[in-house]
Design brief:
The complex is a heterodimer of chains A (273) and B (453). Chain A is an alpha/beta fold. Chain A is 31% helix and 24% strand. The chains are: A alpha/beta (273), B alpha+beta (453).
């Protein structure tokens, strides 16, 4: 169980990205975080594994205070928290296999890993992870020679190396074509069904309806909604995304499960700052 | 009015009073700078420049107070005229001197355009006979046979300026033959007109030669006792051109120097690159922003790099020549230090420019700092590092051609000697050799670099 208690983050430049956000995630949930760009979704996910240091508040993973952990203890806690990134965060020039293996760094000894000496078991695990992502024959390829969808699957394979109990997915499909979005999210859904808790930030409302078991919404760093995906109707959507936003019905890609068109929140043109 | 008065008292004050503090500061700085420069230079006429800016500043302040801004043409023009005028005089630019000393130019450029790197291959034939000077009680026979050539001098001995008859057989036929006097310590003296020009006699078709010579008046100049009879020699030297060229003596030095230069650059670049890699990580802002301790390490490293980089390798070499002695090692140390500083900065900037995503990924997976460097930073920077290092190697070869001027070894060491000696043919040879290797390495490193990026 993951509990987030009164989480607040104020950046050194004075921007407050999160204001007193609290929620609980039960094991096995697929919790989706929605909100406009800049509403604090990325900050929230990164505060959970302390890639970003929260200003106030606590994060508890199965009763262990992640926010209080230091040094080695923190690194060991991070092993249980996988992360999938919007821009995949692969080393473009390295091989797919090396990228996947780097997900195991939290477990391997420093000296051995610096020399690139991976155990047979780790290599086997990496091949297995790639296999699960349908990339078994791509292990030796350079990461940037793969398509966007494949790169994101490499990112998930890398996360699997951590044997995570929870996966934080920060806009995992925002850099991908809508068709690929489903492919990636189905992989995450599969992992979720196998018992890994998933916290995922998403943009498209129909994806939320299709995959989320529960939803929280952020607006200007404040939690403005928490509930079931079905509870988000047009009015709720307007409330979360602002008065000017409107749901645009794209004609493309009916989703496999619901057949509803993809909905895109449209922001008003950015006002000159 | 008040603004103008204020500016008359202190330049820029009026502008500040009119609410243009920044403009005031700039004006004050300009007047101060102009005043300091003209004061340093000491020629009174130039003081017109700060005076002009001062006057303009009063006018400008008065106008500003009325809400009108004056163009900065006057002060900018005054500064420029002053800077370039004083600059012209300080650097003693004298274009006429370029043509005035054409004789001196010719005496240098002429030989330089005829480098003596290689000379025609030739074969020589030498024969000699002993002559006793002055005559002792029992002078040995003045004849000698060597390799089938016999030289006989009559009489067997003599005093300074005595005339001798030289006869030789068994020489190469029909060949110009150089006739020289050799003192007991081996000095060769010319026997031609006035004992200054060389004496050359052609051998006959049958390989014989006859000549009349005078014992040179300075043949005893180095003798410890002019009355002690000693063996001098008459040397006959024939030379015949052969096809092809060979390295001259200077040419051999050039080859030695160039070889030393190349290896000097190789060692210094390698050591420098290793040092720079170690220092680049603590000098990269993005890796060192964790807390105040790492940030201060970053600042200190950066500062040291900047200081070392500002000192030319040539100057570092002077110090190390004193410490480790003359020779290429001093040059290696100097260029290594300079390379660490320059590459360290380039490397650390390459590190700062990398994609942060993979770093985040390694941290999220529970990796530590070293693992992050190894798996997220290194793979991203290796191509840039290799490219910078090749470029630096190129620069280091050029530096190590001149590091010898201060005793740091390499071709520059020989070059400096030749310049001092006035051997400008050898200087020309080294210039050609330096140009060749610089061009070749430039080409090679450029090709390699395009492959890497």
């Amino acid at each position: 169980m993951l509990s987030v208690e009164h989480l607040t983050k104020t950046y050194p430049n004075g921007t407050t990205a999160l204001k007193d956000v609290s929620f609980t995630v039960q094991d096995g949930e697929f919790l989706v975080v929605i909100g406009l760009s800049g509403s604090g979704k990325s900050t929230l996910l990164r505060c959970i594994n302390r890639l970003i240091e929260p200003t106030h508040g606590r994060v508890l993973l199965d009763g262990v205070d992640v926010t209080a952990a230091r040094g080695r203890e923190l690194r060991h806690l991070r092993r249980h928290i996988g992360m999938v990134f919007q821009h995949f965060n692969l080393v473009r020039r390295s091989s797919v296999l090396t990228n996947v293996l780097s997900g195991r760094l939290g477990y391997s000894g420093t000296l051995k890993s610096l020399l690139g000496l991976w155990t047979r078991e780790d290599r086997e695990r990496a091949r297995h992870a790639l296999d699960r992502m349908g990339l078994a024959n791509k292990a030796a390829r350079r990461a940037d020679s793969l398509s966007g969808g494949q790169q994101q699957r490499v990112g998930i394979a890398r996360t699997l190396m951590q044997e995570p109990r929870i996966i934080l997915a920060d806009e995992p499909v925002a850099s991908l074509d809508p068709v690929l979005s489903h492919s990636i999210l189905r992989y995450l859904e599969q992992l979720n069904k196998e018992g890994i808790t998933v916290l995922c930030s998403l943009h498209f409302l129909d994806l939320v309806h299709r995959y989320a078991t529960r939803v929280i919404a952020l607006k200007d760093g404040v939690k403005v909604f928490e509930g079931l995906p079905g509870e988000i109707d047009r009015a709720k959507f307007q409330e979360i995304y602002g008065e000017e936003a409107q749901e645009v019905r794209a004609t493309s890609v009916p989703t496999a499960a619901t057949g509803t068109p993809i909905s895109v929140p449209v922001q008003p043109p950015a006002s000159p700052a | 009015m008040i603004a103008g008065l204020l500016s008359l008292i202190l330049p820029g004050l009026g502008q500040a009073w009119a609410g243009r503090r920044y403009r005031g500061a700039v004006v004050f700085g300009a007047v101060l700078l102009a005043a300091l420069v003209t004061y340093w230079y000491g020629v009174p006429a130039w003081r017109l420049a700060p005076a002009a800016i001062w006057l303009w500043n009063v006018w400008d302040a008065a106008s500003l107070a009325r809400g009108q801004e004056r163009s900065a043409f006057v002060p900018v023009a005054a500064m420029l005229v002053m800077a370039y005028g004083i600059g012209w005089q300080v650097t003693q630019i004298d274009l006429a001197s370029l043509t005035r000393n054409s004789g001196r130019a010719e005496s240098i450029l002429g030989p330089m355009l005829h480098p003596d790197f290689a000379v025609r291959r030739e074969k020589t034939n030498t024969a000699w006979a002993p002559v006793e000077v002055p005559c002792g009680p029992h002078p040995p026979a003045a004849t000698n046979t060597k390799d089938g050539a016999t030289v006989t001098v009559a009489p067997d001995c003599g005093r300074l300026r005595d005339t001798l008859a030289v006869k030789a057989t068994g020489l190469w036929p029909n060949t110009p033959t150089l006739v020289q006097w050799a003192t007991p310590i081996g000095n060769r003296l010319a026997l031609g007109a006035g004992f200054a020009a060389p004496l050359t006699v052609a051998s006959g078709p049958d390989g014989t030669l006859e000549a009349r010579i005078q014992i040179p008046p300075n043949a005893l100049a180095a003798a410890p006792d002019p009355d002690l009879p000693l063996e001098h020699r008459v040397y006959l030297t024939q030379a015949r051109a052969e096809p092809g060229f060979r390295l001259s003596e200077n040419g051999r030095y050039v080859v030695e120097g160039i070889g030393q230069t190349l290896f000097l650059a190789l060692m210094a670049t390698t050591f420098g690159a290793i040092g720079a890699m170690l220092i680049a990580f603590p000098a990269a802002r993005n890796l060192m922003s964790a807390n105040w301790l790492t940030r201060s390490v970053y600042f200190v490293t950066r500062m040291v790099l900047n200081i070392v980089r500002s000192i030319e390798a040539l100057i570092i070499a002077i110090v190390f020549v004193v410490i480790v002695g003359l020779g290429p090692f001093a040059g290696v140390i100097a260029i290594t230090l300079h390379t660490i500083a320059s590459l360290g900065k380039l490397y650390s900037e390459a590190i700062e420019g990398i994609d942060q995503g993979p770093l985040e990924a390694v941290r999220a997976a529970g990796g530590n700092w070293l693992q992050m460097v190894r798996y997220a930073v290194l793979p991203q920077i290796v191509p840039a590092f290799a490219s910078f290092t090749l470029f630096r190697w190129d620069i280091n070869v050029r530096t190590s051609t001149i590091i010898g001027f201060v005793g740091g070894g390499g071709i520059g060491f020989f070059l400096y000697q030749w310049i001092i000696k006035g051997d400008f043919r050898a200087v020309g040879s080294s210039f050609v050799a330096i140009a060749l290797i610089v061009i070749v390495l430039d080409f090679v490193s450029a090709r390699l670099r395009t492959r890497l990026v």
